[in-house]
Amino acid sequence: MSTLRFAILLGMTVAIGPFALDTYLPAFPEIAADLGVDLPAVGRTLSIYVFALGLTQLVAGPLSDRYGRRVVLFTGLVIFAAASLMLARAESLGWMMAWRLVQAMGGACCAVSVPAIVRDRTHGQASASLFSLIGIVMLVAPALAPAIGSSLLYAFDWPAIFVFLAAYAAVVALTLHNLLFRGLPPAPKVTTPVHTLVTNYLTVLRHGTTMRFIAIQTLAFSVMLVFITHAAFIYQEWFGASNRLFSILFACQVAGMVAANFLNRRLLRTFHSTRILRTACAVQALAVLALLAAIVQGAGLVTVAVCMVVIGGCLGTIIPNNIANALEFFPRLGGTASALLGATQFALGGLISATSTWLADGTPLPIVLVMAFCTLAALAFAAGAPGAMARALEMDAANRETVGRR
């Protein structure tokens, strides 16, 4: 299979996450009115999805190492589709929160499988390049998601958005069955004891360099997640943007991420992924501080939107390089390492975004302050990333040489 076709198929799979997060954002006001709650309460349905998405990966990752990527991936797609249909029937915030949690469990199986499949085939700079290519494909989803949601709202009521999510999961399942997994050999027989599902996590947790990259990704991702959680409030309520303009602004942010992914693939030919990662974290921090200054000074919508394009663009560079580096040291535990990365990223990111909803005071300032804290912490971890990576690679090489001599 060609690299491009492989990336497109995996990109379609990963796109389930952005669709689940972004497609229903334009419907927040309608959902709030229909369920009789305020916008921050609807925002918590996003936070609980992200939190559950993270925690479930802790189980799904080791299971994919033990029983194979295919079983875990297709199980997740079925759960995601079924929960999406139930969300379309939700008549209260409580039921919506409950089914979003179940939907996240299915999404977690998809999210954890893709990085593990990539790590099964590639490593090092090649992994970073492939993750960038997958990122370019999957970033079409966040660009289309609000527009799809707005279009469905124009023709139907908000439950149609969740019916669309169920249909998309079904299409992905059929496509993967026919184009990705057909003809592959059956999964190998399980020979490792069950307790390794837990002890393998200790192996990853003890690896200081990998944990550094996990911290970077969690904090950098939280910057964007906090904004997404409050995007309807900031763009539609605070600045008065229409549904159409809201979709356009989101598309501009995604365009920045796509451009950064293309640039990243070129930079990888010359620079090591850790150095690109550190630079991207620094640019993201400057953009968030510029956003903070704009909010304090009462700047207009255009200034805020430009800052968010830069912030999103940096994330498009940070994530592929960071995932590749975090998984580099675990060729046989790709699912476990990927699960810990995803669990930390989404669970802590969900907690941070949920906390930001409680701090909301009717202005964007507390929201941007939380974003500033996250990006500066990510920059602090990234500052030593190149050196930490080099030392870890040297130790890995020394360990392999010692084992070889024995």
Automatic annotation (TrEMBL):
Compartment(s): Cell inner membrane; Cell membrane
Single GO term (MF): xenobiotic transmembrane transporter activity
Domain annotation Major facilitator superfamily (MFS) profile: ranges: 1-389
Gene3D superfamilies: Multidrug resistance protein D
Top-rank taxon: Bacteria
GO cellular component, one term: plasma membrane
Regions crossing the membrane: 46-64, 71-90, 96-118, 130-154, 160-181, 213-233, 245-264, 276-295, 301-319, 339-359, 365-385
Pfam families: MFS_1 (PF07690)
InterPro entries: Efflux_drug-R_Bcr/CmlA, MFS, MFS_dom, MFS_Efflux_Transporters, MFS_trans_sf, Sugar_transporter_CS
Keywords, in A-Z order: Cell inner membrane, Cell membrane, Membrane, Transmembrane, Transmembrane helix, Transport
Cited PANTHER family: CHLORAMPHENICOL EFFLUX PUMP RV0191 (PTHR43124:SF3), PURINE EFFLUX PUMP PBUE (PTHR43124)
Family to which the UniProt record says this protein belongs: Belongs to the major facilitator superfamily. Bcr/CmlA family.
Protein name in UniProt: Bcr/CflA family efflux transporter
Organism field: Wenzhouxiangella sediminis
